[in-house]
Design goal:
The complex is a heterodimer of chains A (about 140) and B (about 280).
Chain A (H helix, E strand, L loop, with lengths): L2 E3 L10 H6 L4 E6 L1 H7 L3 H13 L4 E3 L2 H9 L4 E4 L4 H10 L5 E4 L16 H12 L3 H4 L2
Parallel strand pairs in A: 1-2, 1-4, 2-3, 4-5
Helix pairs in contact in A: 4-5
Chain B lengths: L2 E2 L9 E2 L13 H11 L17 H9 L3 H7 L11 H5 L5 H11 L2 H23 L26 H4 L6 H13 L4 H14 L4 H11 L5 H12 L11 H7 L18 H8 L8
Antiparallel strand pairs in B: 1-2
Helix pairs in contact in B: 3-6, 5-6, 6-11, 10-11
């Protein structure tokens, strides 16, 4: 089964991965209590995240993300939104050992040249400002 | 992982297909809290607060519809200013920052929306750094510029800070808000972080970890690198403030009386000399 892993950095169905995965793909959210414990999340954070996932009307599974996704996907491909989070990237990396995994970026807020100095924000802002202040419709032109 | 023993062939356990949790009504918060508690046996019984901010895309869109970029630009530093409170939704990708930017440009011209979009870009910047240098998230990017070494700072957050019982009235109010609502205005975050790092001389990591426990929008990149900006391990100088500044930007519901905020009272020069005695006097 083709899966879309709705992880906690992209609790949405309005994302390029959903289109890329196709209409038969199954979006799933995994409620990973151990990971929430490791992160030290309070009750209010957990409730907020649960509400975000619940509002999507996708199946929510409880367990370790790697186990649940491996088990559900079988031979299928797994799609996920790109993130900088090391834990999520670690799970995706482990999944790649036995599964086909495709990760897609979220729409960009700003475009900067690859060699942009990121040592301080305002150096970055000077390069990002023009594209950040441009509507996506115009950035696509 | 759950294994079921196959009684016919004990050498080959079969993996049970995970079962989805039972659906529930997203508007039934009492049931959601009960479900989350049941799924989280490690949570302390004393952890009882739930935010008035509700999760979900329709909630995010309602907030987006109320966005006033021009007013944001002129009032954003005030604790009762026209801030969007969209950050928890953006942090969890419920709504995308580029879509938020597009909406801001739909309801306002680029000049009026610039301050708001610049704040969105801070988040984009932190995320890029996180991706590029994930090891910096919990380590000092640079040495402190406070006249102290990192070893001069306490590794643990003092109990009175966790309890909101520091005796500094405005600080205790910010702590209560953080713990009870999971949200703090950015300026209040700066005050609280500055107090913890520089008045109490606590390592920024202890404060950052505590914020991540409570803030609905807490993500390691924005949170930790902002703490480093305050601490001066990712900026040219430490961020600090005085009571006059808190008073200027606070609404009437924050106690900024001098008698209840003694450690924060004083000129910037006097506080600088007190907080950073190893540095040359502030000019």
């Amino acid at each position: 089964m083709t899966l879309i892993w709705i992880h906690e950095d992209a609790i949405t169905l309005d994302h390029p991965v959903v289109q890329a995965a196709g209409p038969t793909a199954k979006p799933v959210f995994v409620w990973d209590t151990d990971e929430h414990d490791r992160r030290g999340y309070s009750l209010k954070r957990r409730v907020f995240i649960y509400e975000c996932a619940l509002a999507l009307e996708v199946p929510i599974y409880a367990g370790e993300a790697l186990d649940v996704l491996s088990s559900l996907s079988g031979e299928g491909k797994i799609y996920a939104a790109a993130t900088a989070d090391p834990y999520i990237n670690g799970v995706l990396s482990d999944l790649r050992r036995h599964h086909r995994v495709e990760v897609l970026d979220s729409p960009q807020l700003a475009y900067v040249p690859a060699n942009t100095d990121t040592g301080r924000f305002f150096r970055f802002w000077n390069r990002a400002r023009k594209s950040a202040l441009t509507h996506s419709k115009e950035n696509l032109i | 992982m759950v294994f079921m023993v196959n009684l016919l062939d004990r050498t080959r356990p079969t993996v049970a297909e995970p079962q989805a949790l039972e659906r529930m009504d997203v508007s039934d918060r009492r049931a959601i809290v009960a479900r989350v508690r049941k799924l989280s046996p490690g949570l302390s019984d004393s952890d009882v607060f739930v935010s008035s901010l509700r999760g979900g895309r329709s909630e995010a869109q309602n907030r987006l519809a109320g966005l006033k970029p021009r007013e944001y630009g002129s009032t954003r530093n005030h604790l009762d200013g026209a801030v969007s409170r969209l950050s928890p939704y953006i942090r969890h990708g419920v709504i995308n920052a580029a879509d938020v930017r597009d909406h801001a440009l739909d309801v306002s011209d680029a000049k009026a929306a610039e301050k708001f979009i610049q704040q969105l870009t801070w988040r984009d910047y932190w995320q890029r750094l996180y991706k590029e240098f994930p090891q910096n998230i919990w380590q000092d990017v640079e040495p402190y510029k406070t006249g102290f070494a990192s070893t001069d700072y306490s590794r643990d957050l003092p109990r009175d800070i966790m309890d909101g019982a520091t005796g500094v009235a405005c600080i205790d109010q910010f702590i209560s808000e953080l713990i009870e609502t999971g949200y703090l205005h950015n300026h209040a975050r700066l005050y609280l972080a500055g107090y913890i790092c520089h008045w109490r001389r606590v390592q920024w990591q202890a404060g950052a970890r505590w914020f991540l426990t409570h803030l609905l929008d807490g993500d390691p990149a924005s949170n930790n690198l902002s703490w480093q900006w305050v601490a001066s391990t990712f900026s040219h100088k430490p961020y600090y403030f005085n009571l006059e500044n808190v008073s200027k930007f606070s609404g009437s519901n924050i106690d900024t009386s001098a008698e209840n905020n003694v450690p924060l009272s004083g000129s910037y020069e006097a506080l600088y000399a007190r907080l950073f005695p190893n540095l040359d006097p502030r000019q």
